[in-house]
Design brief:
Layout: H1 20-27, H2 36-52, E1 59-64, E2 70-75, H3 78-81, H4 88-100, E3 113-119, H5 123-132, E4 136-141, H6 143-148, E5 151-152, H7 160-166, E6 170-172, H8 177-189, E7 204-205
Parallel strand pairs: 3-4, 4-6, 5-7
Antiparallel strand pairs: 1-2, 1-3
Bound molecules: zinc ion.
C-alpha cells in the first residue's frame, strides 16, 4: 500500500475551466477570421497573453473552415492546471468537442474544422489531432523552434505531416512562423519555466 497521502484521497472529478482572461479576450474579439494569417495572428496573441498570465508560450484554436469563425480557443495550462497533458492543442480540442457535443469534429453532417496552433504539435498532440476529426492543421512555429528554446517535441515520426495527410488531414506549416517563434524566444529570455525537465538534461515537454 502506498504510504503517500495523495494515494489515500478519493478519486477526483475532472473539471477544466478556461482562464477568466481568455474568456474576456475572446468575448471582446471578432468572431470571423477569413484568412490563415488572421487566424494565426489571433492564436499567437493568445500565446503571448498566456505568458503574461504565467502560462506556457503555446496556444491553439479551432476554426470553422467554411466561414473562418472561431469555435474554441485553447492555451497551455500545464502549469496552472498542474497537469502534463494540458497543451494548447488538447485544451482547444476538448473545448471544441464540448461545444459541439461530439468527440468527432467531422461526424456526418458536421461542419469542417481546422486546428490552428502557434507551434507544431508535440508527439502527444499529434496523436490527439489524429483522433479529433479536424480536417486541417495549420502551424506557426516549427517544432525545431520550440526545441531551440529547450522544449521537447517527443518522439514524432520524421514524416508526421505526410502521415496526417494520408489520413485526410491537410497540413499547412510556417504561417507567421517568425511572429510565433518570437513568443518562444521571449519566454525563454524572460526565464520562463521549461517544465517536465526529466527527459534529459536539456529538453522539456511543451
Ligand atoms: Zn503538445
Amino acid at each position: 500500500m502506498c504510504s503517500f497521502g495523495e494515494c489515500a484521497v478519493s478519486q477526483p472529478a475532472f473539471i477544466l475551466s478556461l482562464p477568466d482572461w481568455l474568456e474576456e479576450f475572446v468575448s471582446n474579439s471578432r468572431r470571423f477570421f477569413p484568412t490563415p494569417e488572421e487566424r494565426m495572428s489571433f492564436v499567437i496573441e493568445l500565446s503571448r497573453l498566456n505568458v503574461l498570465h504565467r502560462g506556457g508560450p503555446f496556444a491553439a484554436a479551432i476554426f470553422c473552415m467554411e466561414d473562418g469563425s472561431l469555435l474554441a480557443p485553447g492555451v497551455n495550462l500545464v502549469l496552472s492546471g498542474g497537469c502534463s497533458v494540458l497543451h494548447g492543442e488538447i485544451v482547444a480540442l476538448m473545448a471544441a468537442q464540448m461545444k459541439i457535443g461530439d468527440y468527432d469534429l467531422s461526424s456526418p453532417g458536421s461542419r469542417q474544422y481546422e486546428l490552428v496552433t502557434s507551434t507544431e504539435p508535440c508527439a502527444m498532440c499529434l496523436g490527439a489531432i489524429t483522433w479529433s476529426g479536424v480536417r486541417q492543421l495549420v502551424c506557426g512555429a516549427r517544432g525545431s523552434d520550440a526545441e531551440d528554446t529547450g522544449f521537447d517535441e517527443g518522439e514524432k515520426p520524421p514524416r508526421w505531416a505526410e502521415g496526417l495527410e494520408r489520413r485526410g488531414i491537410s497540413v499547412v506549416r510556417d504561417v507567421c512562423r517568425e511572429q510565433a517563434s518570437a513568443v518562444l524566444r521571449e519566454y525563454q529570455a524572460s526565464g520562463g519555466v521549461i517544465y517536465n525537465p526529466r527527459r534529459n538534461t536539456s529538453a522539456a515537454s511543451k
